[in-house]
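Input chain follows. Return structure tokens only.
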Amino acid sequence: MSEYKLPIKFASILFIVLVIVFGIHLFLLNIQGEPLFENLLVLSYVVNFLLAVIIFVVLFHYRYRLQNAIGFLFMGGSLIKFIAFFLIFYPSYKSDGDIQRLESIAFFVPYLSALVLETFYTSKMLNGLQKPED
């Protein structure tokens, strides 16, 4: 169980951060008088959370075997997120012929929040793999 301490910590902190960011997001929408749950907002947070956790767990699982390729796998994870955007969110956002600012924000706020944590924890994981030099 202790072997998966870092992925569990990552998922827990990511969940807490995304809940806080989601609350702030709703608060700002409310202040501006915008609809709170439009633009697939909840789905965006859920999808970004799930993809970030899955990608991090895959990176963690292959951290020793593919140590020199983790950076490429990380970038591949970002590619998967953009594919998810184009498959899940883009058709709905583009249905009126134009992607509105609030639609973009609905996807990119949770995406960037998860990306920052993914980057930090992937870096932390890789630093833990380095052997101390004699």
